[in-house]
Amino acid sequence: MEISIAPVQDTLPEERYDEERVQNDLADSADDDGFFVATTFLERVREIVFSVMFFMVHGNATWTVFEYCALIIEDLQLVTFFISLEVSNAYLIPNGLLYSELDYAHMELKQFSVWFSLCVVAVFLMMANIVWVASGFVHGHHKVIWPIWTLRIFASILPTVLYLPILEVIVNPISCNRIDEGNFGTLATTPCSDLRRLPLTIVSVLAMAVYIPTSVTLTAVYVLVNLNQSSMFGVVLFYFPYYNPNVNFMRGGFFFGTALVGFVATYAAIAHAVTGVQQNQTIIYIMAGVYSFGLATGFKVSAMVYNYIQNEVQCRLVQVQDQVILKGEPIMKPDTLVFAYWTHVEIAARIATIHMDKRRQRVDETTIPHLIMIFKRGMEEFPEQSFLKLSYALYMFHMKALNRDARSRLGKLDQSKVPWDVKFQLYYINQLATQTKEADFLGPGIKLDITSYVENKKTDKDAKLNHYLAVQEMRSLWELLSDKQYTVVQNGVIPKSRG
User: Fold this and answer.
1) Does the predicted model carry a pTM greater than 0.85?
2) Residue 77 carries which DSSP code?
3) Where does the signal peptide begin and end (predicted)?
4) Is position 393 within any domain?
C-alpha cells in the first residue's frame, strides 16, 4: 500500500518540501533502481535500449518442446527456397511441395492486402511495444506489467520463426514489373505507377526500415557470432553459440543438409540454362536423399568437432601443467599454446557445468578451480578478446559468485572501448547480479521473475520517495517546533502570540 504524505502548509517559511528536488536526490542515490547511471544523452539512450533488451530475453522461457519445434520450423524455411515457384522452371516440383509456399505476387490485390496488413500490423505493434516499455524506463516506473509480457512474445517469434515469412510479404510491393499495361488483377501485374500500389510500397519501406534492423540487432546481440566471417554451418562449428550442445548439433545438421540441397539445385539450374530442358522429379528425390544425409552427417560432425575441442584442450592443459603448486594453484608453462582459437576457451569451459541455465544449482565445487585455470590461461593467450573476460565473469556468476578477479576484469572492460554488443552483455550480467542480490535479500525460496522484478523495483522506488518525503517533513516540523516563534495548536503549527 502506498503511503500518502500530506504537504506542509504554505504558510511555513522556506521549509516546504520540494518533490522535484527529492526526485533528483533519488536519481543521484547510488542505491537507486540501477538502470540510469549514464551521464550523457547517448549513454542514457543506450541504457534505455539495454534495459528493454534485457527484459525481452531474461527469464523468457517456454516449454522445451515448443522451443525445439520453433528451431526446426525456422531451419526448415531455408529449404523452401529450393522448392519455390522461382525455380520450378529448372526442375519439376510436385504440387504438394509447391503448396508449402504462398505465391503472394500472383494473389489478387485484396487477398494480398490482408496478408500484408497482418504482417505490417505485427511489425508496428512490436515497435510500439518497444517504445512503450522504453518509456517506462524513461519515467522511472511501469504503470502496468502486461506490455512486458507481450514484448517478450513479440521478441520470441517475430525476429526468429516468422522473420522470413514476414520479410517475404512486406518485400513484395517493392518488387514490381514496371509495366503499364496488362491484367491489373494481381500484384505481379500491377505496375509501380499504379496508385493502388503506392500506399503498399510506402508502408513496405517503412516496415522494412524498422523490422530488419531490429531483428538483425536482436540476433547479433543474443547469439554471439560473427556472421560476416563465415558461413552458417561454419559459424556453428566455430562458435557453437548455444550453450546446449544438442541445439548446436541440430542446427549444424539442418544447415549442412540445406547446403547439399543447394548444390543439387544449382546443378539443376545450370543444366536447365545450358540445355533449356526442365529436369524431371528425380532432382526432388535426390534433394530428399542428400537432405537426410546432410542432417545426419552435420549432426555427427558437429558433435565430433565439439568433443574434439574439449578433449584436445584438456589434453594440452595436462601436458603444459607443471607439478609445482604455488598458493594452491598449478603453474602453467607459458611457452605452449593450449587453445587453437579464442572461441575454444569458452567451449572448453563448458565441461565444468552441464546445467548453465540452472543458476547456482547442481554445481560441482571441485570444478571451479579448473574453470578458473581455463579462463586465465585463455586470457593470457588472447588478451585482446573482450568476450573471454566477459565469459569468465558470467561463468563465475552462474557457478558460484563473482570473485574479486572477475569483478576487476569486468570493471576494466566496462571502462575500455568495447563493441556495443559487449556493452550489452556487461549490462546484462550487472542486472543479473542486482536481481539475484535482491532475491536473496527477500529470503530463501523466493523466485523473482522478470515481472516481479519490475514490480519490486517500482515499489522500492515509491517507498524510497515516500521515505524521503516523510523524513523531510519531519525535519521541517522539528525545526518549526524548536523555533520560539511557533507552537503546536490543534494539530497544526501557528505563530506564537507576541501580546
Assistant:
1) no
2) T
3) none
4) yes
